[in-house]
Prior knowledge:
The structure holds two protein chains of two kinds.
Chain A: H1 4-26, E1 31-35, E2 47-53, E3 56-63, H2 71-74, H3 80-87, H4 95-110, H5 116-144, H6 149-169, E4 178-179, E5 182-183, H7 191-214, H8 217-223, H9 231-236, H10 242-245, H11 253-256, H12 278-302, E6 321-329, E7 332-340, E8 348-352, H13 354-359, H14 362-365, H15 371-381, H16 385-389
Antiparallel strand pairs in A: 1-2, 2-3, 4-5, 6-7, 7-8
Helix pairs in contact in A: 3-4, 4-5, 5-6, 5-12, 5-15, 6-7, 7-12, 12-15
Chain B: H1 2-5, H2 11-22, E1 25-31, H3 34-44, E2 55-56, E3 67-71, H4 79-88, E4 94-98, H5 99-104, E5 126-128, H6 135-150, H7 154-158
Parallel strand pairs in B: 1-2, 1-3, 3-4, 4-5
Helix pairs in contact in B: 2-6, 3-6
Amino acid sequence: MSNPSNWNQASYISAQAADARINIEIESEGTVLNLGPQHPATHGTLRIVVKLEGEKVVSADPVCGYMHRGYEKLTEVRTYAQVTTLINRIDWLGSFANEVPFILAAEKLMEVEAPPRAQWIRTILFEMARIANLSVFLGEMGVQLGAITPVFYAFRDREFVLNLIESATGGRFHPNFDRIGGLKEDLPKGWLQSTQQAMVKMRHFCDELEQMLLENEIFQARCKGVGVIPADVALNYGLSGANLRASGVDWDIRRDQDCALAWKHCDWKVHVLDEGDSFARYKLRLQEVRESTHIIDQLCQSIPSGSIMAKVPKIIRVPPGEAFVNTENPLGEMGYYVISKGGLGPFRTKIRTPSFNNISILPWLLKGVYLPDVITILASLYFILGDIDR
Amino acid sequence: MALVNKKFFPKPLSHILNNARKYSLWVYQWGLACCAIEMAATFVSPRYDVMRLGVIPFPASPRQADLMIVSGTVTDKMAPSIRRLWEQMPDPKYVISMGSCANSGGPYWDSYSVTKGVDQIIPVDIYVPGCPPRPEALLEAIVLLQKKIATEDVSQRWIQ
């Protein structure tokens, strides 16, 4: 150490190291906050471990599995009819929408197609499930921001749709109405007229919420520019559904893929917004509910007559093979990969649920936001725990 | 309270106390799965309106609650938390188990991750069958619980 420049360098390095030590000492350890597993904002039992620095989020880790019921394993020991009963309960708010892709996958393996009337009824009930599902979101979002009134409106008007689903299928929540090759029963008398009347009420509900929340200053201040997801990030994380469309990606499986359902026979449009924030996600879902009512109206008018069941054997054995069918569920893309070995039930089922991918963005999205905004972002992403954990 | 300590509680006083307790049930909502939505429909929907029965569904914590409604699938991962929050409730406490899953495991009776019945971890007063039960069924359960509270002998409940 004879060279003075080396001396300088050494002292500089030690000074730096000392500074770093002091920095470590001064830096507080921060707070670790457990959001959930029983927290109203998490729509069930999601737990999020949030590390806070002051009021800013340093990191957020979602902990799943509190609602894991082992669906994929259970489908291996059930017959096809029993699987339908089970998978109703994945996304419990839009139950009918869960059945359809699985039944379509089984029909694809059996090379059966449901008759047109069954396809129409399936699509109507599918869209009703969407309305029943998203109307809860439209009300709940207000609750997370401290506005209690919208949720009363939502649960009041949701009953109209639930009553219709019940009168057609027999189940308020879990219809279990789909069969391989068609449907269980035909629609009751006068159902289509009362559906159209209920759709008028749902449109009125959308108008009310638009006035109550979207034009509300506090709602705008807390949602606009909060939780912005750019389009490329949304695609990289595999978001789907309204979360993706609110980020400006024009992608809807109902329109972009051809399946044996009746969306291609009616005139509707896919709403896309470019902002990607919480406000856009809310606004988009509101528009989707309104669009769904129009789809149902058109389908009620154009519904064909005829049989509701294709010719299938009484005891269903699906021939060996593999099939994947996905549809645009209320929460996003839902798909079933069914492997059959010719037995009474599927050999293996892989369930692709939208919420699981939608919440995978949380660690990225919640970094650096303030704690009160975490609740807004969680509410606006809209996930259902049964859909995440299966 | 001196009366209670002597293992004697006058009947009229018991009647008044029980009536007061049965019409101010603070509910801790343990919403877990599908049944949670039917529970929400019971509590917030103007059609069912549970508050007319004297049930108040918004306590800030289990420490302020008298009644816990376990609605939905209880998984093995969730069970310890349920037990823990039940222990935090002050003593005259009641539990309603809502739905097949909370009663017995329901459609997941052979699943590897589901607790087959919440009564394995906490004592249950009223079982509500159904998958999920209708809101009317939950209202009926609350009425049954109120009947149970009305006929309770206070000295038996608190003095061992």
